[in-house]
Specification:
3 domains; seven-stranded mixed sheet; Hypothetical protein af1432; alpha+beta
Length: about 400
């Protein structure tokens, strides 16, 4: 493999073999020319050398199987797989179907007093498989899909996904992930035993109404116990508002007396609550929500679970929009397992010479995330992508 200094690259030349950033990631396929913009971006991102077994030439070489672009997986600059858009669409469709299933679970209980745990477990098993194969896609989808008109449905759906992701990071076996996911899906079932104007309110609740809401964990536990749901799942409904320092409700228990599922759902539920939009307040960005959890004021949450959330989503959660230190807007698309402070981002409005989305790994030196973008800034993102 030959090393070529970036400063020696010449615009409008092709290489007879693919040009790589490192041993794993292709920068240019054989039919894609070097451009001045690409050279400038490589310098801007701190690259000094590229690698190839080919030689430069002025004509497009014959393209063979080696000319296919490699997929991205955290390389500093690399094109997204051609099939990623299709996978994202499939995951979106699955996510929307799953949300519809969650709605049916709650509505069937309200209208028919039916709750079939076997159906819930089967759907959760399918969700676990999708998350295993498409984790970064389903976490992005959560920020793209419009919230359901019923907040309980949206909240339970997002909390279920986050809980399973956290559980996977904690290395829970499959049967426990299914149990955890079932618990997360059903953790708010007690809400439907309250007047709808409480949990569907489009305004801030009064102090008396908030006190009424605190009955839902006990109501949920009783619902699940009546339906002979396993104790581990029923306890999660009862304890998901308990806190590690004993300040939660309804029983005020603390520490390891709170079940693991409850501790996981508490973190997932709280993160979703602060980052979800409600009629009476705007959603906070994922970074702010993550920072609040990391502060863990009063030690309300399990530190191990919070760390698992951070390593699953990064400090800047997947799907969130950020501004880079080079002034470019970007969307977080994956975590950096070596350091969750520096996630992998997709540069908004920029593509490689062969038309694929541009992916970058932020770092402590060079280009990094400056700050999260505001909702107003995100709404203004538009226009045709420029070519790298």
């Amino acid at each position: 493999m030959n090393e070529i200094p970036v400063k020696d690259l010449e615009p409008d030349t092709y290489f007879s073999k693919p040009v790589l950033l490192d041993q794993d990631y292709i920068l240019l396929s054989t039919e894609t020319p070097v451009t001045r913009t690409l050279i400038n971006h490589l310098i801007e991102w701190g690259f000094r050398k590229v690698y190839t077994e080919g030689v430069p030439q002025q004509i497009i070489p014959d393209v063979d199987s080696e000319g296919e672009a490699a997929g991205e997986n955290g390389s500093p600059v690399v094109a997204v797989n051609a099939g990623d858009g299709e996978r994202l669409d499939k995951v979106r469709a699955f996510y929307e179907q799953f949300a519809s299933f969650v709605e049916s679970v709650y509505s069937r209980y309200v209208t028919k007093n039916e709750l079939v745990l076997g159906e819930v477990s089967a759907r959760i098993k399918a969700l676990c498989e999708v998350i295993t194969e498409n984790r970064r896609f389903i976490l992005r989808i959560q920020s793209l899909v419009q919230p359901h008109s019923n907040y309980l449905v949206s909240h339970s759906t997002r909390t279920t996904v986050l809980s399973i992701v956290i559980g996977s990071t904690l290395k829970l076996p499959n049967h426990r992930l299914i149990e955890l996911g079932s618990a997360a899906l059903l953790h708010e079932i007690g809400m439907v035993r309250l007047p709808p104007q409480l949990y569907m309110a489009s305004r801030q609740l009064s102090p008396q109404e908030r006190r009424s809401i605190t009955a839902h964990p006990i109501l949920g536990y009783n619902v699940l116990k009546e339906k002979q749901v396993p104790l581990a799942i029923s306890l999660a409904a009862l304890e998901h508002h308990e806190r590690m320092n004993g300040t939660g409700y309804p029983r005020g228990i603390a520490g390891d007396k709170i079940s693991l599922y409850s501790r996981i759902i508490a973190v997932a539920c709280s993160f979703d609550a602060v980052t979800a939009s409600r009629p009476f307040r705007e959603a906070r960005d994922g970074y702010s929500g993550m920072v609040d959890l990391l502060k863990n004021e009063g030690k309300k949450y399990d530190d191990t679970v919070i760390r698992a959330l951070v390593y699953s989503l990064s400090i800047y959660p997947i799907g969130s929009y950020v501004l880079l230190t080079n002034g470019k807007p970007a969307q977080v698309v994956d975590v950096n397992p070596d350091n969750p402070r520096f996630p992998i981002v997709q540069i908004v409005g920029m593509r490689t010479p062969d038309g694929k989305d541009l992916i970058a790994r932020t770092a402590e030196t060079g280009v990094r995330i400056l700050r999260p973008m505001t909702q107003e800034e995100v709404k203004k993102l538009s226009g045709e992508p420029e070519t790298a």
